[in-house]
Specification:
Blueprint: E1 3-10, E2 21-27, H1 35-51, H2 63-71, H3 75-89, E3 97-101, E4 107-113, H4 117-135, H5 145-151, H6 155-171, E5 175-176, E6 185-187, E7 194-197, E8 200-201, H7 206-212, H8 215-224, E9 232-235, H9 238-248, E10 252-256, E11 266-269, H10 272-284, E12 291-295, E13 300-307, E14 310-318, E15 321-323, H11 330-338, H12 358-366, E16 380-382, E17 394-397, H13 404-417, E18 421-428, H14 435-438, E19 441-446, H15 452-455, H16 465-473, E20 484-489, H17 493-506, E21 511-515, E22 518-521, E23 524-526, H18 536-542, E24 548-552, E25 570-574, H19 588-595, E26 601-605, H20 611-617, E27 621-626, H21 634-639, E28 643-650, E29 653-659, E30 665-668, H22 682-694, H23 699-707
Parallel strand pairs: 20-24, 20-25, 21-24, 25-26, 26-27, 27-28
Antiparallel strand pairs: 1-2, 2-4, 3-4, 5-6, 6-7, 7-8, 9-12, 10-11, 10-12, 13-14, 13-18, 14-17, 15-16, 18-19, 21-22, 22-23, 28-29, 29-30
Helix pairs in contact: 1-2, 2-3, 3-4, 4-5, 17-22, 17-23
């Protein structure tokens, strides 16, 4: 029996890959697929392609993976590629997977790239189950659709999360999902972090959310601002509702005070009997039992999305309806519409099935119709009264048509309620004409507007809402992450990291420091509370107060869950580890060197035997450090335009200098290197000054800082 014996999630660069990957150890009864099993797998993939919707099909976009699976007989390779394929078919942008045998016979490793942990785990389990059934000679009982089901993520949140992860990755913004089965996302690092959860951001004001959740209060507030809203009354009984309807005039709307998603909303009620029929259903959807009675506004229903005080998207929502052909009944037309694959019950679909229920019968009765009636050709018959896509309605993008007055009304409504992003439910005869001329108004303000309608309209241009939200959270040219300085090496890394943190603090930074000694943030030592606490580097990078991070690493940091960063401003590779990477994969020095961008700096020790190789591995500028001025590696480095920090002996004692193509620059005089700096390890001092130079710390600042540095004053937080 094919079985997963171990699953590990590496959320950052690791000895397996520089990408986030899921790793599994799998117990396999056989290493190769037989020809008959391979044929069964090919048949399964073909059947999946025929039965899947266009967005899920195993087809042209992934033909290369399909061919690799169908031509491979190694069980591990097929399992890895199938895991990759299932994720891609679910919409995730992943591209790397592989396998290799374990040292123990009958086991192999699978490594597959992922974007969301829950989806990766689910895809891996489904892939192994499919293969296990094939190996046992059974027809696979699971399909690609089971990936989402087994992930336990709500369909809507899965799609929202997926699009945000993709957009953030495109922009180079760090993104984490701290609770794998929730849609909470954290963007950025340190003090630049922002959050998104449940269609709200970390910048969404709580007061605005509470106002928007109270439909009566919202209506009154907007009226006080002079904005167009319908006459409204708050009631608790059917008799009060009837009295309010008589006062404002029919037709009216009933809606729960505090429900959402149009639950319990009844439109265009024209008589006492209709109010009596629907009042109880509306009140039942309200947690308080209160119901809002509003004057019905005649017109089309629009959702206007406002982000950061700007109208970004406009959508017209059209209630479910049928169009007659002169020969078919309303029931048969509904059945025919439901055959459209876009209406299948799948999270990526832009339409929903039209269910025949009491709402349908009520809508037909108001038009003097029944399900067996045959409408005339091109005659429209409404089969739902509330314009909702999730009850079978349609949607049309109207972003480019909205009249400036209507856009300004929506913008001011968002400001009045006090939200950073809002969905304004707007009713008017024509969104392209001013509401002040045509009549109409604001029906509701939503503090957690759904994005799916705008990103996947049935008709019209999709709008990249995730880009709009990220533009608001991270304005152009503003930081998205704190600078990260990472050090490797022997025992020199820890004292050097402490000295670097001290220098950067003196330069005005709030420093997050993680070393084998523990964690210090803003000068305050953190005590480790529990063995299962997150990795110290992750704790530092997620701290919302820091503006720079200093991390002393060791090879164990490449173990689960991997490094919590994918880019370095400064990498200090100070002596190669006696470390054999797993099965020939990358070691920590190489991984760190490759994380440095062209704008960053890689600091290498001239004595390191791997310096030449690492210098070609990094994209950043290379800064060599050397304890002496006569090191043989220096001339060629300097001749090629490189820089070096080194000790130089003088008659007055050692000094610290920077050499480059320009004249030598004195950094620290013999007097400045006297006690207490003389008590600092020479290599640690070299590293710290090199980092200070890379971070543009003025010489006067680091000279003063090293005089005030006392290593013994740093508390070992692991031993407290």
């Amino acid at each position: 029996m094919l079985a997963i014996t171990e699953i590990e999630i590496f959320s950052g660069p690791s000895s397996w890959s520089h990408r986030p990957v899921v790793h599994a150890l799998v117990d396999a009864p056989q290493n190769q697929l037989s020809r008959s099993q391979l044929r069964d797998l090919q048949s399964y993939l073909s059947e999946e392609a025929r039965s899947s919707s266009p967005d899920e099909s195993i087809s042209a976009p992934h033909d290369d993976i399909i061919k690799s699976i169908q031509s491979g007989q190694n069980v591990g390779d097929v399992a890895a590629l199938l895991t990759l394929l299932l994720q891609k078919n679910a919409g995730w942008t992943v591209s790397h997977a592989g396998s290799q045998p374990d040292h123990a016979a009958g086991h192999f490793h699978i490594v597959c790239e992922y974007e969301i942990e829950a989806a990766a785990r689910s895809a891996l389990n489904v892939a192994v189950d499919i293969l296990d059934e094939l190996l046992l000679g059974h027809e696979p009982s699971q399909t690609g659709a089971d990936v989402l089901k087994r992930s336990s993520l709500p369909p809507s949140s899965t799609s929202e999360v997926r699009r945000f992860v993709v957009e953030a990755g495109r922009r180079g913004i760090p993104v984490r999902q701290p609770y794998p089965r929730r849609s909470l996302l954290e963007f950025g690092s340190g003090r630049y972090q922002r959050r998104f959860w449940g269609l709200m951001t970390s910048e969404t004001p709580r007061i605005g959310v509470r106002i928007a959740s109270n439909k009566s209060m919202t209506n009154q507030l907007l009226r006080q601002y002079g904005l167009p809203v319908p006459t409204s009354a708050l009631v608790r009984s059917v008799e009060q509702a009837l009295s309010a309807a008589d006062a404002m005039g029919y037709p009216v709307v009933l809606k729960p005070l505090d429900a959402n998603h149009a639950r319990g909303v009844f439109l265009d009620l024209r008589s006492e009997s209709e109010i009596r029929r629907h009042f109880g259903k509306s009140a039942a959807e309200s947690s308080s039992g209160n119901v809002v009675v509003e004057r019905f506004i005649v017109g089309s229903s629009y959702r206007i999305l406002v982000v950061n005080n700007t109208v970004m998207a406009v959508l017209e929502r059209v209630a479910a309806h049928v169009i007659g052909d002169g020969t078919s009944s309303i029931r048969s037309i509904i059945d025919r519409l439901n055959e459209d694959p876009r209406r299948e019950t799948k999270p990526e679909n832009v339409m929903a099935r039209i269910e025949i229920n009491d709402e349908t019968l009520d809508a037909l009765e108001r038009q003097g119709r029944s399900l067996d009636d045959v409408p005339d050709p091109q005659q429209i018959v409404w089969v739902k009264r509330v314009p909702k896509v999730d009850t079978g309605g349609s949607s049309v993008d109207r972003t480019d048509e909205i009249h400036p007055d209507n856009a300004e009304v929506a913008r001011q409504a968002t400001l009045a309620v006090g939200l950073d992003l809002a969905g304004i439910d707007f009713v008017a005869p024509d969104i392209a004409r001013s509401v002040w001329e045509t009549g109409g108004g604001i029906a509701e303000v939503n503090s957690a507007p759904g994005f799916w309608l705008h990103t996947h309209p049935v008709v019209g241009k999709p709008r990249n809402v995730e880009a709009m939200v990220l533009d608001m959270l991270f304005p152009l040219d503003e930081p998205v992450r704190v600078p990260v300085i990472a050090l490797t090496g022997s025992s020199d890394a820890t004292p050097a990291a402490h000295l670097i943190a001290h220098i950067l603090s003196a330069a005005g930074h709030t420093v997050g420091l993680a070393t084998p000694d523990g964690i210090v943030i803003g000068g305050m030592p953190f005590r480790r509370q529990h063995p299962d606490d997150p990795n110290p580097t992750e704790i530092v990078l997620r701290n919302p107060t820091i503006d720079i991070a200093v991390l002393a690493l060791d090879p164990a940091d490449l173990d689960h869950p991997g490094l919590p960063f994918d880019r370095l401003d400064t990498a200090v590779i100070n002596g190669a580890f006696a470390f054999t990477p797993q099965d020939g994969l990358h070691n920590i020095d190489t991984i760190l060197a490759r994380m440095v961008p062209p704008t960053g700096t890689t600091i290498l020790h001239a004595d390191d035997l791997l310096t030449t190789d690492l210098a070609t591995d990094t994209n950043g500028s290379v800064l060599l450090i050397s304890p002496t001025s006569g090191h043989p590696a220096l001339p060629s480095h300097l001749d090629s335009g490189g820089r070096a920090i080194l000790f130089k002996e003088t008659a007055a004692g050692p000094s610290l200098v920077e050499q480059s193509g320009k004249p030598e620059h004195l950094l620290l005089t013999p007097d400045q290197l006297a006690s207490p700096p003389a008590a600092i390890e020479r290599n640690a001092l070299l590293v710290a000054i090199a980092v200070a130079i890379a971070q543009n710390v003025p010489a006067a600042t680091f000279a003063s800082a090293i005089r005030s540095f006392h290593r013994a004053s740093v508390v070992n937080t692991n031993q407290r």
